[in-house]
């Protein structure tokens, strides 16, 4: 599976692509940070991020796009920009029929560093170690994008099994309710009620 991880942001949007292998092995493919100047008009900043995302999607052909979910931030304006940046990348993937998954910051930190409250230094150190990189990816947005991709590689099998279990449970419930309705119908007939 090839995963394109995105750490969304307007000023710095981290992009990272990894390939997953057997078990928990993960190999780096590419990493970069897309920058847009704060003085640029919002629509132009989003267009720059969208264009870069489309180039990466076409160049690296990921199986899935993993985006960090905007959880909560004190600055509403920053949160909006972050969400918009993630949205244009997700839209570019969706247009190509590529699955899009969102992971919260604590899920990413927990998967990569073993602690949902890990700081950026810990995440960067673990990404560097997991991918066997000689040099830590910089800035932190680059390391975060790789962390998001790694998180998805490791969480995807569990998420898939959970979805299959939920589907099987829903089917079992549907069959049970149909059987119950049939039994009730039979009881009513035996009791002489039309």
Automatic annotation (TrEMBL):
Statement: the UniProt record of this protein carries the keyword DNA damage: yes
Keyword Magnesium appears in the UniProt entry: yes
InterPro entries: RNaseH-like_sf, RNaseH_sf, X-over_junc_endoDNase_Mg_BS, X-over_junc_endoDNase_RuvC
Co-factor(s): Mg(2+)
A UniProt-annotated Pfam family: RuvC
Main location (coarse class): cytoplasm
Known catalytic reactions: Endonucleolytic cleavage at a junction such as a reciprocal single-stranded crossover between two homologous DNA duplexes (Holliday junction)
Residues involved in Mg(2+) 1 binding: 7, 141
Superkingdom per UniProt: Bacteria
Protein task: The RuvA-RuvB-RuvC complex processes Holliday junction (HJ) DNA during genetic recombination and DNA repair. Endonuclease that resolves HJ intermediates. Cleaves cruciform DNA by making single-stranded nicks across the HJ at symmetrical positions within the homologous arms, yielding a 5'-phosphate and a 3'-hydroxyl group; requires a central core of homology in the junction. The consensus cleavage sequence is 5'-(A/T)TT(C/G)-3'. Cleavage occurs on the 3'-side of the TT dinucleotide at the point of strand exchange.
Protein name: Crossover junction endodeoxyribonuclease RuvC
Organism: Rhodococcus maanshanensis
Gene this chain is encoded by: ruvC
